[in-house]
Amino acid sequence: MGKITDRIKEGKILVSDGAWGTFLHEKGLKAGQCPELWNIEHAEEVCDIAKSYIDAGADMVETNSFGGSSIKLSHYGLADRAFELNHAAAENSRKAAGNKFVLGSIGPTGKILMMGDISHEEVYESFKEQAIALENGGVDAIIIETFTDVDEARLAIRAAKQNTTREVICTMTFEKTVDGEYRSMMGISPSEMVHELVPEGVDIIGTNCGNGIERMIEIVKEIRSCNAEIPVLVHANAGMPTLHEGKTVFPESPEQTAGFVKAIIEAGVNIVGGCCGTTPEHIRQIALVVATV
To answer: What is the pLDDT of residue 2?
Structure first.
C-alpha cells in the first residue's frame, strides 16, 4: 500500500475520517465509561464506526485509542491493559479499513509536565507502550493529536519514531485569541509548533479540534508561511460549538463544511477530515469536493 507521504508526493489530496467520541456515545457509551474498553467489549460497534467513514470515501481511518496511554487508562483502573486495548483498537480499524490507511491515535496524558506531577520518562514510556501496541495491531501511521504542549508532543513523537517503523503525524489544537492570533492552551502558535516539532522528524504536521474548517484555513496559511514542504493534515470540528437545551451542538452541516474544502486546499492542506461533531456525511461531502480538485 505504500506510505501516506508517498501518496501526497504524487499530488493526491487525501480524505481522513470524522468524529469518534460523538459516534461512540450514540452507540451507547455512557459518560464516565472508558471508550478504549469498547475495543474488546464492543468490537463490532467500533469496527462499524471505522467502516462507516471508509464507506463515506475516507482514505484513512483512526483507531479508538485516543485515551489509550497507561497514564490516562489509570483513571479507570485499566493501566495494566494498555497494550491489549491499543492492540485491539488497531485490529478493529484495520479490519474495517481494508486497503485504506489506518492511523493509530495517541492523545495527551492530561498531565502538565511543567507542574512536575509526572516525569518526562514516565510520559515517554507510556507513549512508547501505546505506539508499539498500535504498530503491532496493524496501523500504517501514528497520529499524535489534540496536543497543546510542545514538550509533551515531542515526547510522543520520539516514542513513536524511536520504537516503531511507522510514519508519524502530529497535530496541535489552537484557539483564536482576542488579538486574532492562534495559540494553544499552553500559548504555542502554529509557527512555533512547526519550528519545534519538524526537527523531531515528524512526517506530517497539522491541527485538529478547537476550530471549524473556516478558521483552519488561517492556521494552514500560518504553517505554510514557515514551511512550504511538510505535508499538512487538518481535522476540523463541524463549526464552533453552541449550547442547545443543555447539550453541546456543532452546528455546521456537511454541505457548509464542504464549502470551505477548496479554500483549505488552496491554503496548502494535503489531508482533510473531521473532528468533533462531524459525521460520515460530512466526510462524504468533503470527499466529493476533493474528487473534483
So the answer is: 87
* Cα angle for residues 88, 92, 94 (degrees, 5° grid): 115
Range of the domain at 234: 4-290
Residue 171: HSE in the Cβ half-sphere, 13 Å Cα cutoff: 31
Kindly report the CATH number assigned to the domain that includes residue 248.
Answer: 3.20.20.330
Structure confidence at residue 282 (pLDDT): 98
Q: Residue 115: what pLDDT?
A: 82
Give the H/E segment covering residue 145: strand 141-147
Q: Give CA separation, 106 vs 64, 86, 103, in Å.
A: 9, 10, 9
> For 93-115, b where at least 16 C-beta lie within 10 A, e where not — what string?
bbbbbeebbbbbbbbbbebebee
Q: Which residues of the chain carry a pLDDT beneath 50?
A: none
206 in Cβ contact with 270 (< 8 Å): no
In the chain, what is the straight-line distance between the N-terminal and C-terminal CA atoms, in Å?
23
Q: In DSSP terms, which residues pair with 141 in a beta bridge? A: 103, 167
As for how many domains the chain has, the answer is 1
